[in-house]
Description:
This protein has 26 helices and 19 strands. By secondary structure, it is an alpha/beta fold.
Amino acid sequence: MNISKFKIISKLRDSKIFKMLISNIDILLFSILIFIKIMNYAKQISPEYLYIGVTHPVFASILVIVSFSVLFKVNKRIRYLYLLDLIISLILMADLMYYRYFKDVITLAAVKNAKLLGGVSSSVGSLFNVKDLFYLLDIVILIPFIKRYKKRESSRKKKFLPKFAVFIVMFLIGISIDVKSVYAVAKEQPTLLSSMSNRIYLTKMIGNLNFHAIDAYNYISTKFKNSKKISADDEKEIKNFLDQNNAVTTTNLKGEGEGKNLIVIQVEALQQFVINQKINGKEITPNLNKWINKSLYFDNYFYQVAGGNTSDAEFMSNNSLYPAQSGAAYYSYSGNQYDSLAKQLNDKNYYTAALHGNNEGFWNRNVMYKAEKFDDFYGEHSFNIDETVGLGLSDKSFLDQSVEKMKNFKQPYYSFLVTLSSHYPYDDVKNYGDFDVGEYEGTLLGNYLKSIHYTDQQLGVFLDKLDKEGITQNSIIALYGDHFAIPKDNTDQLLKFENVNDTSDLQWYEYQKVPLVIHFPEDSHKGINHTYGGQMDLYPTLANLFNLPKQYMMGKDLFNSDSGKVIFRNGSFTNGKIFYVSWTNTYYDIKSGKQVEETDELKKLRDEYNKELEYSDDILNHNLIKVFENGN
Ligand code: GP9
Ligand code: MN
């Protein structure tokens, strides 16, 4: 009996499979260990997640990195795998610690700008958990085994060609599974890979290793774009443009807000078409309508966001620079120097704070608000998450807690509030309260109307409170929508609701307006202003009201400009009379709605406006505000 058992074992030991297993045990062990580590990390950042989904891309990314090891000689291969194990383990540990604070995944830009992270970098110790050492356990335990294994296997020589064939097969299998999962994300959310707005979600979809690979690609390609030197002449040309653009010609309402608080409210997905509009005889936004009657209302104001969506709206409104050519400026250019609204108000001894009830890392706000020189950022950690609607803390609770915080702010202050509840896809219907949308019940449009009605209600309570607390008396309050609510694919629902048959691109742009409402103490200056403008123009307009220096702004002061210029990131533009739609290369006369032929004058305008986008890109790519400031 014992003898036959011995025979089986020795047969097994002599079998090809066993020998192959032994001679590749390092690769196997590495793959299993890394797989366990990544899945353990995935479990910690998103316990509710169905692990099966992420296993494919995780497995595939391991296959890709392991495939290279096959090409090496055993000694080098072991060294390569050991080093990779160490690097990946350290990245996972950094990711975990970052997650504990920001509920997000770390990026190269965040590491580079670590000094901007304030709180976290100084409290790395407190974010460390002894259990994290689990990630390094194998690194220590394996050392003696590796030594013995190296000795045993180093004499084994393998021919290059079969090794290369194995490499190709492994690599191709891995990379095709990876491409498939990355493609699925790109199809579902086309801008997510470059904008990296929701990094946790992305990591859930493609796994930690692929996330970091894409992040590294984004980081390096931006660096590469920036590395091309800009000529002194081009620099001068940009400076001349800025000087001209920021020259003050007229002084309407100049200094009107000086010394007063500034409260800016960016409302999630608030489009203009809901303002003063009814459904089934009921106003959709009764509170905003009431507020608009007491304020100065800009009714030809456009959102100009690109790949950075909400963050682009913030970026433009606070810096008057165009969004990045691709991706999100909040992510790619968070290491730049800015001459932001908060910075200028800081220089005037204002206390400046950004408030938003979502996790701090979303849209890289934790890094970018520092670059924009906000004194404080009150994110998810600073609020009691006592009620959630949609993506996170409800607007009701957020605005409620925000007033309480603002009551204690040192005056004068600049509060920048970003709401959250009325976020696409507007499906948290049970929490929006009762609002009868009739035939639109159950549709995207109907759900949006419910959600924006809910947010309007909360804004009403908030504005009433500001009134009651006497804050309105001593503050300028600006409110605007961040971007569209109804995606282009669903325009037909919107046109039907508006009873409009015109499906032209000009008409579509008509629906890309968002309200801008500026309230002054004592309801002064109330009325409607039809000047064409966009989010690029908020900062110059406020700079005039608060007597702030205007140096690096690309937008215009809506109170002191007769230009109706609005340039969109895709190259479309309007001057208030003509509308150019870039994707069809068509000009429209706004009044008649008819197409018009391109004239030399229009072509010149188009070239000029394209140039302005290039200037803005250069400012971002070459960190020119820093260059100009240092030169001054
Ligand atoms: C999240 C919020 C949403 O914090 O600002 O961003 P969005 O998806 O609308 O760009
Ligand atoms: Mn948004």
